[in-house]
Design brief:
Strand content: 5-15%
Number of strands: 3
Radius of gyration: 20 Å
Distance between the termini: 39 Å
């Protein structure tokens, strides 16, 4: 028999608030973590039904918002490991959602761009993400949602270089 204490279990995201210790409920970071975990899980489930992950949407959104980019720039922008990004781009290219081309000026550089099919997929994924967002934010009115968005954006920007990838 081991004398080690088993690791404490994290309460399920849907555990009733009354079951959680008030000490934890008084920590904004704890609440952010639980809400984020629940929201990400719900959206990941929707993406998973299509064989996709959040990284796939992130690559499509980056290409749609910023235009064609070198794979190494996507790595830097999104914080995705280079080998993981290569796999994402391979899968998106195989499905016809992105195109890859060698840079004429530097043959070592591979530029990735979104296709029309990729834009259509991104629009569908964005609609699903917003449905999940509406479910998660249902207890808030429109004004509270705008304030929350503003505050979360400020917190995100305040993380600066300490951000981690997807």
């Amino acid at each position: 028999m081991s004398s080690e204490t088993p690791p404490a279990e994290t309460p399920a995201p849907d555990a009733p608030v009354a079951d959680l210790p008030p000490t934890l409920l008084d920590l904004s970071t704890y609440l952010l973590s639980r809400v984020g975990k629940a929201a990400r899980g719900r959206f990941a489930e929707r993406l998973g039904e299509r064989g996709l992950r959040l990284r796939d949407m992130a690559v499509l959104a980056s290409l749609a918002d910023f235009g064609p980019q070198a794979q190494r720039d996507l790595v830097r922008r999104l914080g995705i490991d280079p080998s993981d990004l290569a796999k994402v781009v391979d899968q998106l290219a195989a499905a016809g959602h992105v195109d890859r081309a060698r840079d004429r000026a530097d043959r070592r550089r591979v530029s990735v761009s979104i296709t029309d099919a990729g834009r259509a997929l991104l629009a569908e994924l964005d609609a699903q993400a917003r449905e999940v967002q509406d479910q998660v934010l249902a207890p808030l009115d429109e004004g509270e949602r705008r304030v929350l968005q503003s505050l979360l954006l400020r917190l995100h920007q305040g993380l600066g270089e300490r951000r981690s990838g997807l």
